[in-house]
Amino acid sequence: MTRERFEEVAQKAFDSLPDQFRNNIENVHIVVEDYPPDELRKEGRDGKYSLLGLYQGIPLTKRGTWYGASPTAPDKISLYQENIEASCHDEEEILRRIVEVLFHEIGHYFGMNETQIRNAMKNFK
Questions:
Q1: Beta strands in the chain (DSSP E)
Q2: For residue 100, which phi and psi values (nearest 5 degrees)?
Q3: Which has fewest Cβ within 10 Å: 13, 84, 112, 122?
Q4: What are the strands of the beta sheet with 75-80, ordered from one edge?
């Protein structure tokens, strides 16, 4: 799949998220990359070929009154195209996987833990 098509599918996935999530996201940059950077393996995260997405930033639940008092770089959600595609058989499955990964990483933005994210995903499907 071309990067342009993958980004279109990712945008559709974002648009399909529940309003309470989509409308309350601020200062988050969503990017598509081929693979996670090698530095992530050094940090003890999943391997280069198994990580599908990553949230990097300060979750809403961890932000104090100091947050935003000075210019603040946006949080970042990365979707790893090559890994997502490798875990799927067709475009329909890629769309579902992008929705799952995006929902999961947005859950981290909102400060949800893994159990809370899994429960929210069950209610979303």
A1: 28-33, 53-56, 75-80
A2: -60, -50
A3: 122
A4: 28-33, 75-80, 53-56
SS3 content of the chain, % helix, strand, coil (to 5): 50, 15, 40
Q: How many CB atoms lie within 10 A of CB 3?
A: 11
99 touches 16 (CB < 8 A):
yes
What kind and span of H or E run contains 37? none
Mean pLDDT over the full length of the chain: 86
Give residue for tokens 């995903």.
121
pTM: 0.86
Q: Where does 24-123 show beta strands of DSSP type E? A: 28-33, 53-56, 75-80
CATH class label, 3-124 = alpha beta
Amino acid letter for position 35 = Y
